[in-house]
Each structure stands twice: as structure tokens, then as C-alpha cells.
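Continuing the batch. This is chain 6 of the set; chains 1 through 5 are on the previous pages. Same settings as before, nothing changed between runs. Recording input and output for traceability.
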Amino acid sequence: MTSTIRTTRFSILDRSRTIEGRPEADALRGTVALARRAEELGYHRFWVSEHHSVPGVAGSAPTVLAAAVASATSAIRVGTGGVMLPNHRPLVVAEQFGVLESLFPGRIDMGLGRSVGFTDGIRRALGTEKDATEDFSAQLAELLGYFTGSQTSHPQVHARPAEGLSVPAFVLATGAGAQVAAAAGLALVIGDLRGRKKMLEAIDAYRAGFRPSALWDRPYVVISGTVAVAGTREEAHRLLVPEARSLAHSRVHGVFPPLRSAEDAYSAADGMSARERGFYEDALRGHVHGTEGEVAEALGALIERSGADEVLVTTSSYDRAALLESYERLAGVAGLVGRG
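Output for chain 6:
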């Protein structure tokens, strides 16, 4: 199992989670600082996300934040996990990534998702609707066409400086995302470290339906999720608690709040309704966590079952020092430093 892990790429997606009582700018600066450390540790990519009008997430402008990350680093690949294409015009997205690739050649990834705003109000503010996800394939084709100069939606329009550039594109597998990625010949990012049958079936279908493209000549699978590593299994579990509490609160109250301490989350759990408690307990399930040995065994088995090419870790926690230590321990498990 260890040999499997040590030949697999590991990357980080940071969502710039906010901490209760601290300014949102701290979360953004924390993302940039984590990217610097991730590069030192040997992680392959560092991605940022897109969330709008969410109190618990400061990462609302991924291409802007990606530029800051790329400026603060020198070698690690930088990208988005992802830009939600239904929220934007493909021309604008192409231009943004064209600028990034021009400034940081050979280091930029274009991770693309098909989600829309969390609430009706956010969707209206973004100028989109729930059914905008149905146009994802067409939006994706238009976006990719701006890079090759082959888009037909607006024949007289050219994306500058994107046209002629090659930026690796990834599709986040929500809903029909796996089929879209296969048909377009793009890499697949699928978020489930439980190794459930549904995930494995989606990966198999993606590989079976993959059509080689100019960007990817073969299927490329990235499995994504939370990984927490600590000196004991209990300490690793403690890292998961703040995010689980925040997620449970959002499912019941419709607001995704900033992270609170593990102690606060444990106390809040005692007063939760049965419904919220159910969401909380479910949010704690299915993550890879434990000591180095336990995590190595779990990840090795998952990589072998899925045949994944890469693991994208998305862990968030209130305790930034403990979170950084977790990433350092994981880099040791995966043998990232000095791998080259």
C-alpha cells in the first residue's frame, strides 16, 4: 500500500475558510501562506475555490486568489477547484485564465464546476438560475474553443491572450460531470474518499467513455476529500469536528458559518436537535483520518480500488497550526519531499 501512495501525486484545495472572530483577510492570507508551505513540502498542485456570499468562506474570486498564490510561489501548479462556469460568461473565464497562463506559463490549471449559487438571492445577484447547469456542456465547449480559436458561438470574437495557449482543464464531477469530462476529453475530479460503489462506477464510466483531446490523451482521475493526520486518531478526529459542526448548522439554518473551535463544536453538539445531530454525525463519516500508519493504509487501499492518478486534499479546520501539521505529516506519508 505504501508503494502505491508514494507513486501517486498529492495536491491541496484550500477554501479560505474563515475563523469566528477573525477578519476574512486572515483566511485569504492563510491560503497564500499554506500554498508556500505546500510547495516546500512537495505537493503537486494548489487550488482555490469559488463560493459567493458565504459567511464561512472568503474565497469568492478564485482567479484573483490564484494569481496571488502563483505570485507567492515559484514551481507548484496553481489553479481552481473550481470556477463555476454557470456563474460566468465563457469568454471572461478564457480571458482570465489566458492572463494567468501568460504571467505564470506552464503552472496554471483550469478546474471547472457546474454548480450555481447556494440560494435564490445569490443566483439572482449572479444573473443565473438553477437550470443554468443544463448548459454546462455547451459553456465548456465554448470556453475550450476560445483557447483553440475554434469556438462557433461568436465567430468574430477572439479571447486575448487565451487563444493559442494550452491550459490543462479538469471537470468537477457533480451530477453528470463525469460523462461531460469523458466526452470532452478532460481530467476528472471526483469528491468522495469513502470509495463507495457509486464513485467507482462513475470513474469506470468516465474511463470507458473517454475521448482523447488535445489537452489529455488519456483518462486522468483525481479523487478529492478530507484527510487529517495527527499523532493519535483522536487528535485527527478533532481536526474534523469544526467543519462538521459548520456543515450541520448550514443544513438546518441555511447559513454556512465561520469555523469555531473543537471545544465549542463539542459543546454545541450536546444541544443539537435530533435532525441537526444527524447531519453532524454524517459530516464526520467517510473521511480519511488517523495516525500516519492508519492514513497510509486507508489511502493506499482507496487508490488501488479507484486507480486514481492523484489525491486532492480539501481539509479545513479551526486550528491552523494543527492543520498545517496534518499536511506535513501527510507529505511524509506520501514521500513527497525529494520525490522530484
